[in-house]
Amino acid sequence: xxxxxxxxxxxxxxxxxxxxxxxxxxxxxxxxxxxxxxxxxxxxxxxxxxxxxxxxxxxxxxxx
Length: 64
Hints:
Layout: E1 2-5, E2 10-13, E3 18-19, H1 20-26, E4 34-38, E5 41-42, E6 48-49, E7 54-59
Parallel strand pairs: 1-7
Antiparallel strand pairs: 1-2, 3-6, 4-5, 4-7
């Protein structure tokens, strides 16, 4: 699978299928700090990502 990361912008690749939570663990990213997007859809930690998928990992930003 292709993984697009932000802050700093970079790409990574992993073999699938894997759950989103497994992907984040392998990339050493805390799940509560990011949103994972496939296409136009936000996906949950327990969803499966396949080799053919491209996902985007965006940091959660909050403010007022």
